[in-house]
Design brief:
single chain; 88 residues; mainly alpha; 3 helices; globular
Length: 88
């Protein structure tokens, strides 16, 4: 019989992080689709990224992400990470 993972007490804080508008819309919609808070979604993504692990996303979730990107006109991807310029 396997043991339950040990719970880790954390302190969460509000933050004023600036994020590209269309990306934020996709992230919020994805969190809603997965029945997660936006914070929980981001924390999970960061934990996997910091461990150098692929984020465990199923094919149906990838399809949903692609649909949401079209809905919110998020017409860029990871290759654009350092190409953003602020609108004036």
């Amino acid at each position: 019989m396997s043991e339950e993972p040990q719970k880790i007490k954390v302190e969460r804080v509000q933050t004023g992080v600036r994020v590209e508008k269309r990306m934020l819309k996709v992230l919020k919609a994805l969190a809603e689709y997965l029945d997660l808070s936006l914070g929980d979604l981001l924390e999970g993504m960061v934990l996997y990224a910091f461990a150098g692990k692929p984020i465990p996303i199923t094919d149906d979730v990838f399809e949903k992400i692609e649909t949401l990107k079209k809905v919110y006109n998020m017409n860029y991807d990871y290759r654009s990470a350092h190409q953003f310029i602020e609108e004036q």
